[in-house]
Amino acid sequence: MNREARCIHENGFFHVMVQGINKKYIFEKNIDKEEYLSLMLRYIKKFKITLLAYCIMDNHAHLLIYAEEVYEMSKYMRVVNSIFAQNYNRANDRVGYVFRDRFNSQYIDNRDYLLKCLKYIHMNPVKANMVKKPEDYKYSTYSSFLKRDGIIDDNVIELLFDNQGNYLREMMAIPDEEIEVMDIDREQENFMVAVKNYIINNGTDLKSIKEDKKMLKDFCNYLVIKKRYKQIQVADLLNCDIKKIYYVIKKIKETKSSPSEKVEM
Questions:
Q1: Domain 3-178 is found in CATH 1.10.760.10
Q2: Is residue 9 predicted with pLDDT exceeding 70?
Q3: 193-209 pLDDT tens trace
Q4: How far is the CA of 26 from the CAs of 98, 131, 210, in angstroms?
Q5: What percent of the chain is predicted at pLDDT more than 70?
Q6: Distances from the Cα of 98 to the Cαs of 21, 42, 160, in angstroms?
Q7: The model's pTM
Q8: What burial class does residue 252 get, using C-beta atoms within 10 Å of its C-beta: 0-12 exposed, 13-18 middle, 19+ buried?
Q9: Each residue's pLDDT tens digit, 227-244
Q10: What is the pLDDT of residue 66?
Q11: pLDDT by residue (tens digit) across 88-118?
């Protein structure tokens, strides 16, 4: 199976963003960037994920992750963020939330979007006028792509680009205006509008949906199958384990593919 075909499955490539609560500059100091990077790298092997790219800015960070199972990505981010938050609070003599949310993520379902995401991540410090060229920024993977060191090796290049040739030229050739519209916050706002519409149209509420198996199945079918939002967004919304949503979606897909469900003409 080629790489592009793998991208369109529920499990695959994810663009993840974490942000300081109230957009606080939690990574403003280099020591904090290095701490977060150290945690990211330390827990890669503990979970079934591949960290493909990252960029740690002053008040947020972007990651590109490949995961065979979506809940492995969720567990990885939860551990990294939780430990960083504990250390950050201890070092700064503070209590309370450090991150705005646990994290936001976008599922990447095609190769064009994947390449746009890669450029978007690496151009963040240039757009913020922190450096003139992406390779000048210390806390991103751009230089690693140039040198093929750190987390970037032939397997990562193959997974992302399907080749060992001019992969960076392919990524950087994408027009800047095409990456301007990549906005995780905007997607989350659209998601919440879809949730609100569903609740109004069906005369229900999130508590009832979470507790009723049939309602949960219909809710997941609407948001994940029809609207193509992510399982992890639904799990976070309902404050439940991602595995629960994963198995609900799995059952829905199995039912749809069952011969007994086909309508006789």
A1: no
A2: no
A3: 889 999 999 999 999 99
A4: 7, 20, 34
A5: 88
A6: 6, 20, 32
A7: 0.69
A8: middle
A9: 878 787 888 889 888 889
A10: 93
A11: 999 999 988 898 877 788 888 788 888 889 9
Residue with tokens 């003409």: 265
Q: So what's the pLDDT on residue 188?
A: 67
CA 111 and chain centroid, separation: 15
C-alpha 236, offset from chain centre: 13
Decide: helix, strand or coil at residue 73.
Answer: helix
Place of tokens 């979970």: 47
Sequence-separated (6 or more) residues with CB below 8 Å from residue 34: none
Helices (H) and strands (E) in the chain, counts: 12, 4
Q: Please choose, from the candidates 38, 37, 60, the residue with its C-alpha nearest in 3D space to the C-alpha of residue 124.
A: 60
Residue positions counted in the chain: 265
SS3 45: coil
Q: For the residues of 179-229, what is the DSSP string, one character each? A: TTT--HHHHHHHHHHHHHHHHHHHT--HHHHHH-HHHHHHHHIIIIIIS--
Domain locations in the chain? Answer: 3-178, 184-261
